[in-house]
Design goal:
The protein is an alpha/beta fold. The protein has 7 helices and 18 strands. Pfam families: UPRTase.
């Protein structure tokens, strides 16, 4: 049974946006073509990243874009006349959890084409359901002021917790990390909110049940298989 409970934390934002709810309904369908599944995942990621950006940047002081771009001319030039402009001086990082998290990257890159992409390779052991790290592309020093952690599914929460630990050990504070997801289990989302209370989570829906094998119910199935057409026939 699918639910949309009150967030267990003020940092958990469950979407009520009509576009997200419509796309999510499509994504749950077992026979949705892979191409449409990829497009739906991308769209929801775009909405979540945009929603956070609009909210968080309301009070962010802007800087003269000439400073950011290294311009030496007095003003920028429109087709009509010179003008001055502003930009938000944040270095953005996108951190997809391989492999399903890559399905959220393209939508985020449309908003932040110059973002640093920080891949984290984690998989869940089928027996213990524990997260196992196999890859990390984090530079030697922190290269972002704000990082979006991208993973379509929050099941037990173990993989997300491992990724959050990697990012905080890298040097980010919890307030610098925003998690973007599509569907989570109530158990998994609660687990993250308790362990990392200052990390904001933007998610499309939270479902009540988690199966014995660690799948969200009704969920979406295996998001990685559906994104990359690697279903077991």
């Amino acid at each position: 049974m699918s639910v949309t409970p009150q967030p267990t934390s003020p940092k958990v934002h469950i979407s009520t946006h009509p576009l997200v709810l419509s796309k999510l309904t499509q994504l749950r369908l077992h026979d949705l073509p892979n191409k449409e599944f990829r497009e739906g995942i991308k769209a929801i990621g775009w909405v979540h990243v945009m929603a956070h950006t609009l909210h968080a940047s309301r009070h962010q002081p802007g800087v003269d874009i000439r400073t950011q771009l290294g311009y030496t001319v007095p003003d920028l030039q429109s087709p009509i006349a010179p003008f001055t402009g502003h930009t938000v001086p944040l270095r953005i990082g996108l951190s997809p959890i391989l492999r399903a998290g890559t399905g959220l990257v393209d939508g985020a890159l449309e908003l932040f084409p110059d973002a640093t992409v920080l891949h984290l390779g984690l998989f869940r052991d089928k027996v213990t359901l524990q997260a196992i790290e196999y890859y990390s592309k984090l530079p030697g020093e922190v290269t972002a002021d704000l990082v979006f952690l991208l993973d379509p599914m929050i099941a037990t929460g173990g993989t997300a917790l491992a990724a959050l630990t990697m990012l905080t050990e890298w040097g980010l504070t919890q307030n610098q990390i925003k998690m973007v997801s599509v569907v989570g289990s109530a158990q998994g989302v609660k687990h993250i909110a308790e362990e990392f209370p200052d990390v904001e989570i933007f998610i499309g829906a939270v479902d009540d049940e988690l199966t014995e094998k660690g799948y969200i119910s009704p969920g979406l199935g295996d998001a990685g298989d559906r994104l990359f057409n690697t279903h077991h026939k």
